[in-house]
Amino acid sequence: MKTMKLFTMLFLAMGVMFVSCEKEGPEGPQGEMGLQGDPGPQGETGEQGPQGEDGNANVIASDWMESTFSDTATFSQSQEVFDSNITAEVIDGAILLAYGRGGSDGNPNRLAVNLPYLVGERNYYSIARIGSIIFAGRRTGTTNQIFSDFTAFRYVLIPSNATSKIAQPNFEKMSYEEVMDHFGLDY
């Protein structure tokens, strides 16, 4: 009888435990934000880092060079400019930007344009070679052309080590003025 009483009590106790356990209700609203804590102590000053390179230290930029293209109508014309700074290492990873400029020195509206450049049936472009840059014009049609659209040429060579440290813009899509401003070069 005692055993029966004990089992009955245990059975009732377990029943009460199961009935009293309910699924939790919905989550209540977010409480208010606590107060801001005190700031921590100032950390120690680190060592000075090494001096960085000048942003255009490795950029090779020519002066404006007068065009030597003749006034004779031809299939093509070219002008080679020699520069010993243009090495195989520079050419392998460099960005070559070439520009043509028309008009005269007294013309305040002289506009420099990126090469390659197409004017009518005249295509102007440049080629980098070890020790030189070639500025060239070639007809695109069947009629010989006079390549007189530009009176001067200039180039900028940006070696790969001048642009590898951080992401750089696409210089080939930038205007002449934007490139000069980016590298702090004279117009």
Features:
187 residues; alpha+beta; four-stranded antiparallel beta sheet; 3 helices; 9 strands
Cα Rg: 38 Å
Low-confidence stretches: none
Annotation, overall tally of beta strands: 9
How does the overall form come out from the CA principal axes? elongated
Beta-strand percentage?
Answer: 25-35%
Secondary-structure element order, N to C: HEEEHEEEEEEH
3D structure, described in words:
With 187 residues, the protein is an alpha+beta fold. It has a domain at 60-183. It has helices at residues 2-20, 88-93, 176-183; strands spanning 60-61, 65-66, 76-82, 95-101, 112-115, 117-119, 122-129, 132-139, 152-158. Strands 1, 2, 4, 5 and 9 form a five-stranded antiparallel β-sheet that branches. A hairpin with a 2-residue loop joins strand 6 and strand 7 (122-129). The longest helix is centred in the N-terminal third of the chain and has 19 residues, at 2-20. It is elongated. The protein starts with a helix and ends with a helix. 17% of the residues are buried. The model has no long low-confidence stretch (mean pLDDT 82).
Brief characterization of the structure:
By secondary structure, the chain is α+β, with helices and mostly antiparallel strands. Helix content is 18%, strand content 26%.
